[in-house]
Amino acid sequence: MKRILITALLITSLTPAARAVDCIDKACIDVYTQDGKIVIEGHKGSGSVEKKAVAPKPAKPRAPILHRSITPKPRISASARPKVSKSKKPTVRKVLTPSATAQSLSDKLLEALPTAGIAYSPSFQPLIKVPVYFWSDIPNFFTKRVEIVGELVDVKLKPTFFWHYGDGVVYVTDKVGAPYPDGEIRHTYSKPGHYLIELITQWAGDFTVQGVTAHINGDIQTVSVLPITVVAAPTRFTPPITFNR
Fold first, then answer.
1. What structural domains and CATH numbers belong to the chain?
2. Given phi > 0 = left and psi -120 to 50 = alpha, else beta, which region is 208?
3. Which residues pair with 151 in a beta bridge?
4. pTM, 2 dp
5. What are the DSSP calls for 103-171, one per residue?
6. CA–CA dist 217, 2 (Å, integer)
7. pLDDT tens profile 85-123
8. Element housing 39 (H / E)
């Protein structure tokens, strides 16, 4: 699985740490192929939560302990008694440090590509040693515009066709073909029989984000099959014509 990373500037190689930092303020778009589909993935924001250290609480001082003497004391008037001040507990202030939250936005889209339909002409019992014309209903280009994490992504793919005619001959082209007489994809069978046409469509292309275009590494292949029966031309033998004088 190969990937290309693109932001406001084209980025082809980033470490995970650098990528996370770069995606905080920018949208990182990743387009790649996986399981026969185009995957468009977007991410913005670090998604991490910063934790701040909390100041330790100060220790509470102990109040002084007053010991009473067992020796009897003479009575002293209330006015002459010394005042004993009680020590106050120090006030402890709790420091609340709210944690800084970081928002992240991510999304992932899957785009399936069309499968080719096969047609040929003549459609009924084509003859040996007579060209058979082939074509498919795939468009010359596949384009798709999607919006992901606030960014517009334009994907453009072009197909390449591999025609396997079933008799060992393979023809490669970027044309979709057409019926007789305009079609350029044609094949002539030399022997009658039942053949299996196999068309392999290989997709490759580019994607564009914020005016920056990058190639999508890798490709996607779709396969279509269709049987065909080729027959021999009927032959008639006629007796020679004689003329009497």
1. 3-50+102-230 (2.60.40.10)
2. beta
3. 148
4. 0.62
5. --EEEEEEEEPPPPPEEEES-SSPBTTS-EEEEE---S-EEEEEEETTEEEEEEEEEEEEEE-SSS-EE
6. 6
7. 565 665 545 433 333 334 567 788 888 888 889 999 999
8. strand 37-44
